[in-house]
Amino acid sequence: MKKTTQFTLIGLGLLISACGADPAGPAEAPAQEPTLPEATEMWTPVPNQIDPFQQNGAPSDAIILFDGSNLDQWISAVDSTAAKWAINADGSMTVVDLTGDIQTKENFGSVQLHVEWRSNPDNMASGQARSNSGVYLQNRYEVQVLDNNDNPTYVNGMVASLYKQSPPLVMASVPTGSWNAYDIIYHAPEFDELGEMVKGPIMTVLHNGVLVQDHFELSGTTEYIGWPKVSAHGPGPIKLQDHSDKSGVSYRNVWVRPLD
Ligand code: MG
């Protein structure tokens, strides 16, 4: 009986092998080099076709978070009431000092995020007080916004740093008062059933098209004082920072593409 079963399985294995499928799971690289070009072609799944510039420069499959017309996608991070930042005639919005951070109504996990920001040319404070703001992923992990033109500070707190964790590879800011762009590829952290972080949040950041954070894995939350903290969480809002020191930072053209 046992022998018969064994022979049956071997026969089945040979039959499946002959059909090109592997009963053990995903196909491994064949030992023998393919001799036909078709053998290494993939035809499915077919990627969706999108228009990369459909929505005022945003891809057709992006969620528009701010296009200059209203703050409908945002709420106050302080009390969940309407966002109180100012909308300007040029299609931007500006932090209204002491009104608090604003965050998206919608929660996100892994995303591609595009944000444009402008430092305040009238803000000539020094160090961390000059046009300080920030873009937070999942409400916890900050990509620093700061005017570092002729304004040094600690490098893991400078513009395009992952605050207190990773300095940028280069300083790629445009002159004070001009528009900067951040393109952020963010992969949400993963936690096991005990709440332990088995994979940290991973950030890749382009500052004005220049790679400044290269697939950096954060060790935990952004903290002003103390080490990064870890506690399990799910999707969270994207947040923009009111540093509460008359920063005068402005934002425009904010869009996101969920990657989950
Ligand atoms: Mg900041």
Low-confidence stretches: 1-23
Distance between the termini: 49 Å
What's the pLDDT, averaged over the residues?
Answer: 91
> What is the CATH homologous superfamily assignment?
Exo-inulinase, domain 1
**What ligands can be seen in this structure?**
magnesium ion
Strand content: 25-35%
CATH level 1 class label = Mainly Beta
In which range does the helix fraction lie? under 10%
Biggest sheet record: 8 strands, antiparallel
Total helical segments: 1
Question: What is the general shape?
Answer: globular
Cα Rg: 24 Å
**What is the strand tally?**
15
**Might you state the CATH topology name?**
Jelly Rolls
Topology, pairings included?
Elements: H1 2-19, E1 63-66, E2 74-76, E3 86-87, E4 93-94, E5 102-104, E6 111-118, E7 133-137, E8 141-145, E9 179-187, E10 190-191, E11 197-199, E12 202-207, E13 210-217, E14 239-240, E15 250-258
Antiparallel strand pairs: 1-15, 2-5, 3-4, 4-15, 5-14, 6-9, 6-15, 7-8, 7-14, 9-12, 10-11, 12-13
This protein binds magnesium ion.
Magnesium ion (MG) binds next to β7 and β8.
Based on the model shown, name its key terms.
eight-stranded antiparallel β-sheet; Jelly Rolls; five-stranded antiparallel β-sheet; globular; mainly beta; 1 helix; 27% strand; binds magnesium ion; 260 residues
What does this structure look like?
Mean pLDDT is 91; it is low at 1-23. With 260 residues, the chain is mainly β. The protein contains one helix and 15 strands. The radius of gyration is 24 Å and the shape is globular. Strands 1, 3, 4, 6, 9, 12, 13 and 15 form an eight-stranded antiparallel β-sheet that branches. Strands 2-5-14-7-8 form a five-stranded antiparallel β-sheet, with no helix packed on it. It has a single domain (63-258), classed as Jelly Rolls. The relative contact order is 0.20. The structure holds magnesium ion. Magnesium ion is lined by residues 132-134, 142, 144-145, 241, 243.
